[in-house]
Structure formats: structure tokens, C-alpha cells
């Protein structure tokens, strides 16, 4: 799911219902066209994350709420205590189901699992609800097995974790986002804190989308599995603190407070 689609799903999770025109008005301020937003909403409906109770009106489904819950709880993993249990997902599709296999694989990786061996995905965190939802979503019950337990031999080392999860690439992306924040976003925010609520809300969406992109790529592994120079948690906290600063600046009586308060 693209970050802008996920962000629209987040907005829908905060409101009972939204008109497509309201979302278009918001995102046109961000440079997105009306057809692009309508196409994103259609994709969300196709994925069963949203429904249309009436023409041009969208509401989030339970599957959509579960997706948002899984993303929102992910940052808390950095402060969670790991008990050493590993959670494995084994997939074995016939070649005729290659497309469905690839779609499930992409979703598992985005959730936070890593590829241990061919067809074997692993995580130190128990994404039980998320994995079950993905199995149902892709109608893959007969092709998937799920296990949890301790490794008695071949414990994953820090060096192996850097291969199972693309930690070098993730580090590079975090550093790129930090440079963007310091060189472009922070000066813009400093000059905009007294702007109208819509302009502040747009800044909230821009920074929120960047943070959500990091949520999607970062497995947020236990410290034991991370390199000694891992800065992702520090960078993420800096961006999140700024996001909270924007939230505080949006007036509680504005039309946009319901999306952030």
C-alpha cells in the first residue's frame, strides 16, 4: 500500500465517514490530483479496507482498522522487551499461484517479517493478528503454516539480522529523511506555525507520511539484533516529537482537529 493511501485510511479511521471531495480538497493542497485520490480510494476498497455506504462516501472497514492498529503499535516495539521467542511463517505455493505468493510475500515483508530461507519468514515479534489477516486476505490458508518457539541451534546473530532485514538500506533511508527534515521541512515549519489550520494540517500530513514510510520499512528489531551504531530510533523520535508539536499548534476548534487530537 502506498503511503498516501495508508494516510487516507488513517484519516478515515478518525472520522465516521468522509466524502471523496473532502479528501480531494485536502490532498490537492499537497499536489495530488483528484483522479489520483479517487484511484487510491478505489484501491483501498478493492483491498476491502474501506467501504462506500453511499455514493462518493467512504468509511473504514474492520480490516482497515486492524491494518491501522498494526501500524500504530509498531513504534512501541522499540521499547518492548523481547523474550527470545521467534515467530515463523512458512509459505509453499504451487507455481500456478506465483502472483498470489508474491503478493503475500510483499505484505509479510512490509509488516516487519524478514526472509530467513526461501519460503520461510521470521520475526522476533508476534504479528499474529496481522499474519492471520494476510492469510485470509490472500486466501492462502492451505499454503501457509505458522510456528512460534525458541531456536535451539543456529540462533540469529546481529550480522545475520543485517542480511535477513535490509538494515543498511534502512539506515540510508533514515539518514535521507533526516537531511530532508533538517534542510527543508524544519525551516518551513518554523515559518508556518502561525498559519491557518489547513496549512498546519498539510504540514502534519507531509511529516506524518514521512514517518509512516519509515514505519513500513523498519522492522524495529530488539536491540540485541541491531548494530551498535543504529540511529533509527533516535531519528524517529525527533520526527515524532516535531509531529506532536504540529498537533499542538492546530486549534482544537478547527475542522482538522478531529484527525489529530
Short précis:
The protein has 261 residues and is an alpha+beta fold.
Describe this structure in words.
26% of the residues are buried. The protein has helices spanning 3-14, 20-28, 34-46, 62-73, 98-111, 128-137, 158-164, 167-190, 197-217, 232-249, and strands spanning 18-19, 50-54, 57-60, 86-91, 114-117, 120-123, 144-149. The protein has 261 residues and is α+β, with helices and mostly antiparallel strands. Helix 1 packs across helix 3 (34-46), helix 5 runs antiparallel to helix 6 and helix 8 runs antiparallel to helix 9. It has three domains: 3-67, Arc Repressor Mutant, subunit A (Orthogonal Bundle); 85-149, Alpha-Beta Plaits, CATH 3.30.70; 165-259, no CATH class. Strands 5-6-4-7 form a four-stranded antiparallel beta sheet, with helices on one face. The protein is 54% helix and 12% strand. It is globular. It has ten helices and seven strands.
Amino acid at each position: 500500500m502506498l503511503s498516501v493511501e495508508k494516510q487516507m485510511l488513517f484519516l478515515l479511521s478518525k472520522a465516521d465517514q468522509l466524502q471523496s471531495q473532502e479528501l480531494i480538497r485536502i490532498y490537492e493542497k499537497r499536489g495530488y490530483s483528484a483522479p489520483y485520490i479517487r484511484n487510491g480510494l478505489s484501491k483501498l476498497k478493492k483491498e476491502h479496507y474501506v467501504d462506500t455506504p453511499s455514493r462518493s462516501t467512504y468509511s473504514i472497514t474492520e480490516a482497515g482498522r486492524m491494518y491501522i492498529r498494526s501500524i500504530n503499535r509498531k513504534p512501541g516495539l522499540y521499547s518492548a522487551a523481547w523474550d527470545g521467542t521467534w515467530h515463523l511463517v512458512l509459505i509453499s505455493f504451487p507455481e500456478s499461484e506465483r502472483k498470489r505468493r508474491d503478493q503475500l510475500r510483499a505484505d509479510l515483508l512490509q509488516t516487519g517479517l524478514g526472509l530467513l530461507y526461501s519460503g520461510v519468514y521470521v520475526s522476533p515479534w508476534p504479528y499474529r493478528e496481522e499474519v492471520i489477516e494476510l492469510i485470509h486476505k490472500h486466501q492462502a490458508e492451505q499454503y501457509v503454516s505458522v510456528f512460534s518457539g525458541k531456536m535451539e541451534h543456529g540462533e540469529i546473530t546481529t550480522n545475520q539480522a543485517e542480511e535477513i532485514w535490509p538494515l543498511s538500506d534502512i539506515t540510508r533511508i533514515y539518514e535521507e529523511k533526516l537531511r530532508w527534515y533538517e534542510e527543508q521541512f524544519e525551516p518551513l515549519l518554523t515559518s508556518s506555525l502561525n498559519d491557518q489550520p489547513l496549512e498546519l494540517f498539510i504540514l502534519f500530513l507531509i511529516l506524518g507520511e514521512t514517518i509512516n514510510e519509515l514505519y513500513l520499512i523498519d522492522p524495529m528489531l530488539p536491540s540485541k539484533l541491531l548494530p551498535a551504531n543504529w540511529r533509527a530510533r533516535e531519528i524517529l523520535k525527533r520526527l515524532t516529537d516535531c509531529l506532536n508539536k504540529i498537533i499542538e499548534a492546530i486549534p482544537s476548534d478547527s475542522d482538522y482537529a478531529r484527525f489529530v487530537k
